[in-house]
Design goal:
By secondary structure, the protein is α/β, with parallel strands linked by helices. It is built from 8 helices and 16 strands. The strands form 3 sheets. It has a 6-stranded mixed beta sheet with strand order 4-3-2-1-11-12. Strands 5-6-7-8-10-9 form a 6-stranded mixed beta sheet, with no helix packed on it. Helix 2 packs parallel to helix 3, helix 5 crosses helix 8 and helix 7 packs antiparallel against helix 8. 39% of the residues are buried. About 3% of the residues have low confidence.
């Protein structure tokens, strides 16, 4: 048999750092579109079912429109979609999964969607699923602990493949420590895989780490199917799902399939001369192409530019701000006017006001203070205005 392993959909994630509301809505909607792409893969692979290892929603208080969109997309898949709560959409009393609106939409739009809230095996015709749901955001005990004492002799069909479904951290892999920004917290939902009964599980489908990650031959993180943050490090591999071929008592065959659509790019660039601005323009085009409203970019700029190069850089960034869904800038470039540019700004007999302002800005632009940065921006704007 074969099935698809996915996790960390986090539908309804606000993407609050994308300040344009239309662009933020585009990024949010792409996460729902990813479910439809998963459905296409399931059909192509003739999958028996789909497992979601936690965090279907970004919040345990997901709004009604997000719930409806999710149920509609899941319902279109047709085959069973089986999920557990993660730390973002955890279970417990009064949880989203027990609310009347979710139950109504699930029955109406997605009767194939099954959320497992109990520590009890689900015996299907093709496999046995052992769910390890999170009933709190932070569990103090290992969510797979119940599997250590389970009586496997009680199973109806002992020849079916056995799959554990869990959400949490193993070997220090923690999705929240891999976040877009640097103020994330670590998760205490720790999973001790080495304490599970040996040879009892044919595959362990994990969620919480947002990149695809092999822990051992039988345990994998699928990662999020649609990238939701800027990557950190070469070992980060988000934007995929896993197709698993499985037989009881054998090593699973794991196929990684890319499902991400939006591009999240990281570029660092150093300027040595004004001509390097065109090199940056070429690199942006090479990496992103002519796409618009489909990419996000974290851009770190260093080095120094003259006034002409700095003005050209400002124009280039203005273009890319309009094309990108988000441009996260870290501009460490020093504006260093050439002697000719200084003379053009300060030696203006016919424009003494501009000459005096430019002289003051050049003096204030020295140093690394916030005021110096403002002065450099003002100096660049002044230079651009008089050279239009």
């Amino acid at each position: 048999m074969n099935f698809l392993h996915t996790a960390d959909w986090q539908l309804g994630k606000p993407f609050a750092r994308i300040t344009d509301p239309d662009k933020a809505a585009k990024v949010r909607s792409e996460r729902v579109s990813a479910i439809k792409r998963i459905g296409t893969v399931a059909k192509d692979k003739n999958a028996d079912f789909i497992l979601v290892a936690g965090d279907v929603f970004d919040s345990f208080t997901a709004d009604k429109s997000t719930v409806s969109a999710a149920c509609s997309a899941i319902g279109e898949i047709g085959i069973p979609v089986i999920a557990i709560p993660g730390n973002h959409d955890h279970g417990g009393p009064g949880c989203l999964w027990e609310q009347e609106f979710f139950q109504k939409e699930r029955r109406s739009l997605a009767p194939n969607f099954h959320i497992l809230l109990d520590h009890a095996p689900l015996e299907l015709d093709t496999a046995v699923i052992f769910p390890c749901p999170l009933l709190r955001r932070h569990e103090s005990v290992d969510p797979t602990e119940w599997l250590r004492s389970f009586d496997f002799g009680s199973l109806k069909n002992k020849d079916l493949p056995r799959i554990a479904l869990a959400h949490g951290s193993v070997h220090g892999f923690d999705s929240e420590g891999n976040d877009d920004e640097d103020n994330a917290l670590s998760s205490p939902n720790l999973i001790a895989l080495d304490r599970l009964p040996p040879d009892e599980f044919d595959f362990i489908a994990l969620g919480d780490w947002h990149g695809t990650k092999k822990i051992n031959s039988h345990a994998w993180y699928a990662g999020t199917p649609e990238i939701d943050r800027f990557p950190k490090g070469e070992n980060n591999d988000p934007g995929n799902i896993l197709n698993i071929e499985l037989t009881r008592g054998t090593t699973p065959t794991v196929e990684k399939i890319t499902t991400a659509h939006l591009g999240w790019h990281v570029i660092e660039f150093d300027f040595a001369s004004d001509e390097d601005v065109e090199r940056l323009a070429e690199q942006l085009t090479d990496q992103i192409g002519n796409r618009a409203q489909e990419d996000l970019l974290q851009l770190t700029l260093r080095g120094s530019l003259g006034m002409k190069g700095s003005t050209r850089l400002g124009q280039l960034l203005e273009t890319w701000r309009s094309r990108l869904l988000r441009l996260k800038e870290k501009d460490l470039v020093r504006t260093a006017p050439t002697p000719e540019e200084v003379a053009a700004l300060t030696e203006r007999a016919g424009d003494p006001l501009i000459a005096n302002v430019a002289t003051g800005l050049i003096h204030e632009a020295e140093g690394n203070s916030e005021e110096a940065e403002i002065a450099r921006i003002a100096l660049r704007e002044l230079y651009g205005a008089i050279n239009r």
